[in-house]
Design a protein that fits this description.
The complex is a heterodimer of chains A (about 110) and B (about 110).
Chain A (H helix, E strand, L loop, with lengths): L4 E3 L2 E4 L5 E6 L6 E8 L3 E9 L2 E5 L6 E5 L5 E5 L8 E8 L8 E2 L3 E5 L1
Parallel strand pairs in A: 2-11
Antiparallel strand pairs in A: 1-3, 3-8, 4-5, 4-9, 5-6, 7-8, 9-10, 9-11
Chain B lengths: L2 E4 L4 E4 L4 E8 L5 E7 L6 E7 L4 E4 L2 E6 L4 E6 L8 E8 L7 E3 L3 E6 L1
Parallel strand pairs in B: 2-11
Antiparallel strand pairs in B: 1-3, 3-8, 4-5, 4-9, 6-7, 7-8, 9-10, 9-11
The chains are: A mainly beta (about 110), B mainly beta (about 110).
Chain lengths: ~110, ~110
């Protein structure tokens, strides 16, 4: 079956702009989580959506937001981009039960200049 | 708050040897622990899950141990190969009953031919 698909793979934006990233989970997976990965901080949890509702949220400013559609596809938005937002943004889908693995997409590499 | 520690220094070993990576955690008693592999520029890939009542788990050349007294997991790769070179991340479910994986920063393994 198809894996988790993230688009675009690479993105270059200017400070102050906003950006929207997309994630299509594995068919049948209703949970989508987003992570930010930087060399200094590692993988940090942003938020999780389940059945179109944000169920968990990490410690990120309100500039980071997301949503999930009825087909489980999810989008993440970052407004007023800062240089420090440059990172690999990863989406993971899962069956949303304990003990289950997370399936990650290849990520979107965002560079803010 | 919970803390996950992995050796930030890269582990360099010779092909054919056993690689052993360590994951320590504090302020937490997770019900399970996961190990993921991440290659540069790609999302993590799930390898193994071990539950708190399991001391050891094996999958092909991989072996994971889980010592809840020491609050430590060891990840072994036997008969290592250059293709095993990657960053290995341990992940625990976030505290408070959430199943959202919280990741360590990972240890880079380099297997020399």
């Amino acid at each position: 079956k198809a894996g988790v698909t993230q688009t675009p793979r690479y993105l270059i934006k200017t400070r102050g702009q906003q950006v929207t990233l997309s994630c299509s989970p594995i068919s049948g997976h209703r949970s989508v989580s987003w992570y930010q990965q930087t060399p200094g901080q590692g993988l940090q949890f942003l938020f999780e959506y389940f059945s179109e509702t944000q169920r968990n949220k990490g410690n990120f400013p309100g500039r980071f937001s997301g949503r999930q559609f009825s087909n489980s596809r999810s989008e993440m938005n970052v407004s007023t981009l800062e240089l420090g937002d440059s990172a690999l943004y990863l989406c993971a889908s899962s069956l949303a039960f304990a003990d289950t693995e997370a399936f990650f997409g290849q990520g979107t590499r965002l560079t803010v200049v | 708050s919970q803390k996950i520690e992995q050796n930030s220094e890269a582990l360099n070993i010779q092909e054919g040897k056993t690689a052993t990576l360590t994951c320590n955690y504090t302020n937490y008693s997770p019900a399970y622990l996961q190990w993921y592999r991440q290659d540069p520029g790609r999302g993590p890939v799930f390898l193994l899950l071990i539950r708190e009542n399991e001391k050891e788990k094996r999958k092909e050349r991989l072996k994971v141990t889980f010592d809840t007294t020491l609050k430590q997991s060891l990840f072994h790769i036997t008969a290592s190969q250059p293709a095993d070179s990657a960053t290995y991340l341990c992940a625990l479910p976030a505290s408070g009953g959430s199943y959202i994986p919280t990741f360590g920063r990972g240890t880079s393994l380099i297997v020399h031919p």
